[in-house]
């Protein structure tokens, strides 16, 4: 917790995309903890707020967030030859909409790349 708190303080004063990407990776590493998925998503959102509009490097953060959410979607998919239950199908639908919304948000930002 000490490291997480200190990284959080440092990241608020730094506008470097690379620092935010490292912070996001750190947050992803804590996904096994209770509420870890929410913390990772919150960290991505804060990173986008801080540096997501960086015209040259912001694209890296958007790509990382899309990859993260796509990995979450892949984890929900049923194994080949099996059928997902109704709850899983609902989760897949929610996750697919989350990714589509992320794409739409990115398209509204003028980025190079």
Keywords:
mainly alpha, single chain, globular, 73% helix, 113 residues
Which residues form runs of ≥5 with pLDDT under 50?
none
Q: What overall geometry do the principal axes of the alpha carbons give? A: globular
Q: Write down the domain tally.
A: 1
Query: N-to-C SSE series?
Result: HHHHH
* Assembly context of the chains: single chain
Give the total of beta strands. Answer: 0
Helix content: over 70%
Instruction: Please report which band the strand proportion falls in: under 5%, 5-15%, 15-25%, 25-35%, 35-45% or over 45%.
Output: under 5%
Please compute the radius of gyration using only Cα atoms. 16 Å
Please outline the major beta sheet.
none
- In whole angstroms, the N-to-C terminal distance is 36 Å
- What integer is the average pLDDT? 88
The total of helices stands at 5
Derived from helix and strand composition plus strand pairing, the structural class reads mainly alpha
